[in-house]
Design goal:
Length: 246
Amino acid sequence: MSNLNRDVLYMIFEQLQNDKNTLYSCLLVNKTWCEIIIPILWRNPWESLKKENEVLLLSVIISHLSNVSKNEIGKYKLLINFYKKPSFNYIRFCRYLNLNDIQRIINNLYKEFSLIVLDEVLSLFINDNMKFTHLFVHQKFDKINPICGAESCFSGIEYLSCSTNINDTILTELIKTCKSIKELELIIRARKNNYGIVKLIEAQKKLFNVNLVSFSKYDLFCDILENLLITMQIPYNILRYYGRKF
């Protein structure tokens, strides 16, 4: 098997993408296998992320920062250990971006200094050199300032999961940038829904499936979205979870 060409190896390892333990073992075989497997593992580093591994993941991410950025964070004597710059640029392999997870992990570790670290980390993911296909941005992601580089790296988004009370700044950026969403998941909140979501849906050219997730027995905003999707002839599902928190 070690003599197979890279294309064949890639197809084999792609079939194992959900078997992380096997992939971790295989990447130790030789340099070629490692170079093929690392991009597969880092395509979606947030998938099945265990709490005990969150600090390690953030440490690896921060290791990609420039020395200037590390020194900026270091001025505040923050808690996390810095690793030396890795031999692979792992971040450039990411195609899934979970803004909610990034902010949650940083908030838990850095408390009152979280905004400083968040700005530095986001600059690694959101820039002109990155291209994402999947984006997750829920209500707990509350960065207000415009995100530099979003127009370039979000232009190829095919799957979006977001809360309907997303803040105006982020939603405006998504409406302007994301025109090729194929699948959309909307977490409908009980209040403060952003009616700009309607414009986001109307801006899509390839949308073929929408999941509406509601936690209320009766939800006016859900009805508005449902009527819009019927008018646009876009297939949709409604998932209702009464009395549960998300």
